[in-house]
Write the C-alpha cells for this entry.
Amino acid sequence: MESTNVLMAGFGGQGMLLAGKVLAHAAMAEGKEVSWLPSYGPEMRGGTANVTVCVAARPIASPLITTPQALMVMNLPSLEKFAPKVMEGGLIVVNTSLVHRDPKREDCTVVKVDARHVAGLAGTERAANFVMLGAYVAASGVVAPESVEREIENEFTGRKAKHVPANIAAFRAGVDAGRDVQETAAQEQDA
Amino acid sequence: MGYIRIERAVCKGCGRCIIACPKDLIEFSEEINERGYQVVTYKGSPEECGGCTLCAVACPDLGIETWNNRGKQTFTVTTGLTEKMTHYCPGCTHGVVHRIVAEVLNELGLIGRAIGVAPVGCSVLAYEYFNFDMFEAAHGRAPAVATGAKRARPDTIVFTYQGDGDLASIGGNEILHTANRGEKITVIFLNNAIYGMTGGQMAPTTMPGQRTTTSPFGRDVEDTGMPIKVAELLSSLTTPAYIARGSAHDSKHSVRLKKMIKTAFQHQADGRCFSFVEVLSTCPTNWGLSPNEASAWVADAMMDYYPLGVIKEPAKEPATAPAKA
Amino acid sequence: MTKVLMKGNEALGEAAIRAGCVHFFGYPITPQTEVPEYLVKRLPEVGGTFVQAESEIASINMIYGAAGTGVKCLTSSSSPGISLMAEGLSYIAACELPCVLINIMRAGPGLGGILPAQSDYHQATRGHGHGDYQLIVLAPASVQEAVDLMTLAFELSETYRNPVMVCADGMIGQMMEPVEFPTEGRGEPMADNDWALTGSEGRERRIVNSLYLSPEDLDAHNRKLKAKYDLIAEKEVRHELYGETESPDLLLVAFGTMARICKSAIDDLQAGGAKVALFRPITLKPWPYAACREAMDLLPADAPVLNVEMSMGQLIDDVRLAGEGSRRVEFLGAAGGVVPTPEQVAAKIRELLP
C-alpha cells in the first residue's frame, strides 16, 4: 500500500473522530505515516462531524483530501454531501441503521452495515462507530485488525477500561461484515 | 533647638510648606533659583522650630530636611528615590506619593525585592525617580504587566503606580480583572480628577460641573455620567484583600495616607492578595489654581464624593492560621 | 524517543515546556483553544504558571511583565486576538524582551470565520503594531515541524531578545500527526542575564522601558534594533526546496499548509513528467529572498513563478521582491477558510506549463 485515505462522517457524538483517531494510532503503530484532520467549528455541536485520515508509506503531503479513496458515513446528510466526492472506484461504507438510501455510485465498492444493530449484538449500541471501522479496515486492508484492537485497548484506560471488550467485539463484528468485500476486491486485483 | 534645611536648587516655589508649618516660620524669599522658581526660606528665629516635619512632608520635591530640639534628624530624604529632580509641576502631589511609596518600601525592608510599573500619564517617568527595578507599561496595562511579573517572580514585591485616565478609563478592564483574580500586587492609584499629561482633559473621575478642556462648560453628568468611585467599585469584588482611599493634599492627610500605603505593601509582603490605595491628588496646573488653592479644592470639592478611609480589609485571621511565607 | 500522535495545538504546548517555558498567559479563541486547554493541565506538573487573561490585550501585557523578569513565556491566540496584541508586541520588541507567541490563523477580516487561512501574513511580517520593529516569524507545515520550530522559537527569542511568532493555520492546530519531541521533560530556564527585573538587591537597578523623549536617543535605539534585525536576516533565514530541484519548468512558492498541498500537486504531476519545484519559506520574517531568487534562476528565462496562498495576495509581495521584477509571478489563492486543493493547484500548473 503506497497511500490511502478515508473520510469518516456522521453527526457529532457518533464517534467518528474517535474511530479516526484509533485508526491513525493503529497505522502509526505499524510504522506508517498518518494524519488526522477533523472538521472543526459550529458543526461540532449537533451538525455533521467528520475527519479525514491519511495513511501512507512516506510523508504525507496534503492532509486535505477533496476526493477521498474511501468514505465511511454514519448518516444521510453525510452520504449526500460526500458520496459524490469519492474517488472513482473507491470504497463507501454505509451505516444502514440510519441511511436507507443507496450511494448511487456504481463505480464504487459499497459495504452496507447495520452498525447499531451489529454493535448491539456485540454488547453496546454505542460502539456502532467501531463496527463501521471494522468494516472499513477489513474492506480496505489499510491496517491489520489486530493493530486496531490494540489501539482500542490503549484508548479505553482507567475507569473506561470496562468498555474495551464490547468495543473490540463490535470492531470484530464489523471486520466480519467487511471481509467478504476485501476478498472480492483482492480477486479483482489479481485478475 | 530644631531647624530645617531647605534645598534651594530643588524648590519649585509651590508654597505648600508655608501652609504646612504650624508656627508660620516659612516664607517666600526674593531668590529665584536656576530653574526659575521663587524659593522659600526659613523666616523665624532658630529656637522657634521644633522639627515637626510637616513642611518636609508637604514638600513634593524632597527639598526639606528637619531636625528636632535635641539635634536629632527628624526627616531624612529617602534613598528609595533617585536624586533626579522630578518633572512634575509645582504643587503637584505626585512627588509626595512617590516619597511615601519609597519610604514605605524602605521601612519594610522591601526595596531590594521591589519591581514597580509606571503607567502612561504624568507619572510615565516614574521609573526615573524610583530607585529600584522598574517597568514602563503601555497605557492602562500596568496591572497586566504587574500580573506577569509577579506570577513569574513570586518572591518580588510588585506594584503599579497609575493615574485616573490610565487606570479608570483605558485600563478599566485590566484593573478590574487583576483585582478580581486577587493578584498579589499593590496598586497605587492617583485620582486628581483630570488628565494631566495631555493637558487637562476630562477623566472618568472628573467632578460634576468641573471644567476641563473637553468639558469646557463643566462636566455634564447627563451626558458623561457621574465620576467613577474606583475604590468602591473594586470593593464590590469579593477577592481583593485591602482597599483604601487617602489623600495627599496636605501634611496631616499625607501622614494617614502613608499608613494606608504601608498596610497595603505589608499585605503583599505577608502573601495576601490584591491591595489598592486610591489617593486624592492635586493638579494645580490643569485645575487653574495655585498649589494651595488646589489643596483646598481637594478638601472642599472632592472629599465628600470620594470619602477617605479603609473600605475593605481582610477578616481577622483565626489564631490557628498557618504562618505566611 | 518514541513518536506520539498529537494535535498541533497540544504539540505546540508540549514543545514549549520541552523548550523550558513554564509560564503561559492567554485567552480562549477558536481554533487555538487546545493550547491553553492542554497547558492548564500540563503546567502544574512541571511547576509552571497558567493565567487565563481577561483579554488578548491583557495576555500580551502579562507576557511583557513576565518576559521583563527574565523567564521564558508563551501566549497563544488566533487572528482577531493577535490584532489586539499589536500594542503590546510593539512594546515588547522595543524593550527587546524575549517571548514566543503562537498565531493559529483563521479567516478574516473582521470576525471572519474560524476555518484555516493565511491572511495574517502581512500582519505577521510587517510588524502590525506601531513603530519600526520586526518579529521573527516561523511557519510550520506539519505538526512535527510545529514542534521543531517551537524549540527554535525559544532559542531565537533568547539569543536575539526579540519576540518570535510561530505562525500556523487552523489546519495545523487542529490536525493530529505523529510527533517526536527532541528532548524529554521540562527544558532549561532562561540563562541569567544583565537586563531582567528581579529585584535590585545587591546590584544596580534595571529599567524596562521604551520611552525615549530625545529624538537622537530614539534614533540611536532604532538603529540598534535595525542592526539586530539585519543580523537576524543574515543568519536565520530558513527555507525548503522540493520537487524538481535541478531544472524545473515552473516554480511554486507557498508556505505552511498551502505548501503541503502544493507538494501533493507536484507529486501528482511528476508521474506525467512535469518538472515543477516548490520554494517554501520557513522563516516568513526574515524572508529568504536570496534563496528564492536562486530557485527562480533555475527556471528557463521566460518561465513563470506561481504564488499560492490561503489569502488574497499577501505572500506574493515577497515573491515579487525576491524576483526583483525578473519574473512573471502568477497568483492562485483563496480566502475565508476555502483552501485551494491539490487538484486546483495542479490545474493551474498545467495551464502555465508550456
User: Anything to note?
Assistant: The CA atoms of residues 166 and 183 of chain A lie 26 Å apart.
